[in-house]
């Protein structure tokens, strides 16, 4: 049956196989013939494969796994396929018939898998298959014992998928329709022949392959067809009204909406399921609470305990920086001259020099790294027990290359997670009175919870699970042994990241990398892969910090594109540990960034000057072009970003001045702000001083700038 097909298929692809079979009939009786396992082993060996037989019950799972270890030295894959039937209508099922079905199907799968589990964890690899049934999914007359055990296997598989993921152990469930020793007396003979086990085996092999990322999924399979199943949940109805008890009549009145699957959701994790229900509680609470809730008094007491903290405004502060700080940050999160496209982040002379979007957290971090959390009224925060749980950053426009930003912080909410408190700190940063970026720091205070406060908040930016499919792109960067030492220069001086003694006191083998450093690496990977390093397309990022990283380890960012949202998770390549989870970056579509860019030259004083130069050169352009014979390109910036480009083409002909980059190649390119351009033109700013102070950038044949004197003074009369 199915087991034989699996064993032959695995062996054909080079796997070493332990074939386990008691030799009994479909009821688990008539034990004594061990030929089933022996025949399959002989068939594998006759074709040059490797296999051994085992005749132990699946209830003795350790013996089966031991057979694999003794024969082949390791255990990589477990296919839980053993099964029997004891069918009877519910009223006629005996205790024995109920118990033995659960012992073979559910307990047997548990025993074999548990015996293999620690071996798989140590080697950071494992693939497990559970065998459910359509009877378990949908129910079937006469199979109450069997269907209960089979759906139990699905629950077991889903939990193992969650617990094993960090160790690269994947667990999936199949519900096969196949002719086998167990079904040969149930199905018609022609159907047994049509539903060959060979039509199931390829799915099992794929799910067990090292490159398959599928995990925690359920598939129906048979006859050459495969389909994935998922849960679906109606939007439902709130049947509790403000200050009114919940009644059966209210349930009846809303029954149609309770059962309406239009716009249904498809929860994939228990967090999504419970989160929806908690959202309902918050909605009801916001309408004044419900008197029939016996915990409402405790929650009210806890909320009042935090009342002094929630909405508390932190002292305003300024965050000033120059190109030096933005470059230091870029180097701290792995930007390198080895990557040509990174040059725009680490060389201030680049025509498209830009500040990495995630520098926005550096601008806002002062209340967090500066110890201000210990000064919040109504909240006792031990700074030694503070962990950075999650981070959200949203940009409303690209960060200026240099500036002085005014920042305002507020305690958005305080949540009681039992083992600790989560403090949501919102920080708004303004440049020239305009809101540039918004941060939400989720700070976990270990050991301060358990007093009955609310667990969720509609003010929290929610982390989102990554899609359950192979990533669309993967990028890797090896961190330097000096990475934490370099990153801390951006303002987080916590000795945990540099002092071995302090790290040991905190329970680490050695100093760890800043979580926000890993955050910066990951965001840089997404920006590079999906936005070609265009900072104007960066809208927002949300991450959950899962595990620490040690300097010198390799960060592997796995990315999934779904529209303009890039889901990602970051792993340490050497260990497989997920260090950033449930993360995403929202990008602006290219059309949006173009739409939001002001038309070139809008509201720029320099525009009037270039237009006037064009007019004044019109009659004498031929003469000037003969003397100058060069093309000049100007990049005029506003707020740290290129706002307009102009070209003065004096190479042959009668010359011309036009808005936009040079249509050929420019001999010299000058970059400076609109304000500095006007000061140069008006004689208030010496060009040489502007150049050496960094206010004017020049590339190409810089000596040609001397000829600009001719244009600006003698001919244009400026």
From TrEMBL:
Pfam families: adh_short, MaoC_dehydratas, MFE-2_hydrat-2_N, SCP2. Keywords: Acetylation, Fatty acid metabolism, Isomerase, Lipid metabolism, Lyase, NAD, Oxidoreductase, Peroxisome, Phosphoprotein. The keyword Phosphoprotein applies. One of its GO terms (molecular function) is 3alpha,7alpha,12alpha-trihydroxy-5beta-cholest-24-enoyl-CoA hydratase activity. It comes from the Eukaryota. One of its GO terms (cellular component) is peroxisome. It catalyses: (3R)-hydroxyhexadecanedioyl-CoA + NAD(+) = 3-oxohexadecanedioyl-CoA + NADH + H(+); a (3R)-3-hydroxyacyl-CoA + NAD(+) = a 3-oxoacyl-CoA + NADH + H(+); (3R)-hydroxyoctanoyl-CoA + NAD(+) = 3-oxooctanoyl-CoA + NADH + H(+); (3R)-3-hydroxydecanoyl-CoA = (2E)-decenoyl-CoA + H2O. GO terms for biological process: fatty acid beta-oxidation. Its main location: other. Pathway: Lipid metabolism; fatty acid beta-oxidation. Residues 320-447 form the Peroxisomal multifunctional enzyme type 2-like N-terminal domain. InterPro entries: HotDog_dom_sf (IPR029069), MaoC-like_dom (IPR002539), MFE-2_N (IPR054357), NAD(P)-bd_dom_sf (IPR036291), Peroxisomal_Beta-Oxidation (IPR051687), Sc_DH/Rdtase_CS (IPR020904), SCP2_sterol-bd_dom (IPR003033), SCP2_sterol-bd_dom_sf (IPR036527). Residues 465-582 form the MaoC-like domain. It is found in: Peroxisome. Residues 610-713 form the SCP2 domain. Homodimer. Bifunctional enzyme acting on the peroxisomal fatty acid beta-oxidation pathway. Catalyzes two of the four reactions in fatty acid degradation: hydration of 2-enoyl-CoA (trans-2-enoyl-CoA) to produce (3R)-3-hydroxyacyl-CoA, and dehydrogenation of (3R)-3-hydroxyacyl-CoA to produce 3-ketoacyl-CoA (3-oxoacyl-CoA), which is further metabolized by SCPx. Can use straight-chain and branched-chain fatty acids, as well as bile acid intermediates as substrates. Belongs to the short-chain dehydrogenases/reductases (SDR) family. This is Peroxisomal multifunctional enzyme type 2. It comes from Neovison vison (American mink).
């Amino acid at each position: 049956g199915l087991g034989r097909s699996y064993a032959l298929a695995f062996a054909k692809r080079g796997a070493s196989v332990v074939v386990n079979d008691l030799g009994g009939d479909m009821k688990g009786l008539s034990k004594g013939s061990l030929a089933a396992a022996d025949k399959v082993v002989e068939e594998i060996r006759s074709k040059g494969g490797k296999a051994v037989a085992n005749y132990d019950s699946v209830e003795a799972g350790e013996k089966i796994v031991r057979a694999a270890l003794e024969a082949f030295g390791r255990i990589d894959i477990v296919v839980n396929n053993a099964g029997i039937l004891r069918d009877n209508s519910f009223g006629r099922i005996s205790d024995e018939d109920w118990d033995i079905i659960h012992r073979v199907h559910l307990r047997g799968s548990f025993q074999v898998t548990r015996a293999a589990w620690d071996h798989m964890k140590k080697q950071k690899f494992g693939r497990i298959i559970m065998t459910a049934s359509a009877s378990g999914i949908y129910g079937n007359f006469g199979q109450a014992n069997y269907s209960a055990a089979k759906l139990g296997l699905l629950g077991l598989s889903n939990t193992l998928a969650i617990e094993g993921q960090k160790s690269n152990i994947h667990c999936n469930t199949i519900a096969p329709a196949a002719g086998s020793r167990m079904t040969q007396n149930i199905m018609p003979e022609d159907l047994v022949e049509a539903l060959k086990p060979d039509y199931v085996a390829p799915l099992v092999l794929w799910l067990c392959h090292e490159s398959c990322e599928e995990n925690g999924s359920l598939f129906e399979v048979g006859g050459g067809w495969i389909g994935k199943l998922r849960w679906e949940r109606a939007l439902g109805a709130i049947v509790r009204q403000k200050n009114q008890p919940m009644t059966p009549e209210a349930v009846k009145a809303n029954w149609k909406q309770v059962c309406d699957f239009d716009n249904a959701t498809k929860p994939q994790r228990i967090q999504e399921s419970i989160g929806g229900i908690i959202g309902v509680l918050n909605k009801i609470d916001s309408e004044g609470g419900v008197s029939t809730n016996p915990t409402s008094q405790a929650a009210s007491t806890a909320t009042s305990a935090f009342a002094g903290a929630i909405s508390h405004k932190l002292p305003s502060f300024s965050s000033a920086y120059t190109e030096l700080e933005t470059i230091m940050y870029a180097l701290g999160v792995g930007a390198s001259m080895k990557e040509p496209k990174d040059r725009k982040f680490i060389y201030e002379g680049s025509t498209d020099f830009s500040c990495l979007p995630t520098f926005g957290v550096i601008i806002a971090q002062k209340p967090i790294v500066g110890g201000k959390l210990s000064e919040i009224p109504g909240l006792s925060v031990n700074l030694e027990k503070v962990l950075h749980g999650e981070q959200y950053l949203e940009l409303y426009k690209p960060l200026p290359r240099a500036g002085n930003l005014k920042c305002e912080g507020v305690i958005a909410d305080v949540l009681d997670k039992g083992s600790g408190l989560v403090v949501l700190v919102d920080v708004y940063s303004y440049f020239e009175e305009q809101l540039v970026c918004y941060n939400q720091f989720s700070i976990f205070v270990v050991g301060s919870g358990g007093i009955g406060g609310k667990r969720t908040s509609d003010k929290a930016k929610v982390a989102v699970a990554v899609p359950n499919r192979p990533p669309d792109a993967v990028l890797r960067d090896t961190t330097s042994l000096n990475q934490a030492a370099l990153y801390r220069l951006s303002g987080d001086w916590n000795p945990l990241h540099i002092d071995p003694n302090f790290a040991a006191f905190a329970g680490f083998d050695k100093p760890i990398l800043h979580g926000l450093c890993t955050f910066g690496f990951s965001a840089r990977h997404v920006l590079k892969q999906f936005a070609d390093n265009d900072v104007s397309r960066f809208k927002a990022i949300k991450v959950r910090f899962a595990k620490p990283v040690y300097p010198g380890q390799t960060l592997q960012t796995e990315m999934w594109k779904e529209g303009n949202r890039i889901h990602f998770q970051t792993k340490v390549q050497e260990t497989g540990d997920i260090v950033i989870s449930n993360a995403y970056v929202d990008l602006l579509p290219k059309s949006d960034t173009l739409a939001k860019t002001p038309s070139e030259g809008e509201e720029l004083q320099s525009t009037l000057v270039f237009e006037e130069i064009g007019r004044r050169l019109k009659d004498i352009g031929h003469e000037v072009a003969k003397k100058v014979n060069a093309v000049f390109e100007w990049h005029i910036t506003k707020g740290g970003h290129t706002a307009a480009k102009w070209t003065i083409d004096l190479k042959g002909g009668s010359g011309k001045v036009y808005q936009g980059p040079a249509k050929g190649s420019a001999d010299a390119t000058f970059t400076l702000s609109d304000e500095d351009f006007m000061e140069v033109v008006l004689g208030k700013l010496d060009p040489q001083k502007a150049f050496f102070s960094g206010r004017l950038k020049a590339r190409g044949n810089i000596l040609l700038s001397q000829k600009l004197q001719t244009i600006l003074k003698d001919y244009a009369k400026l």
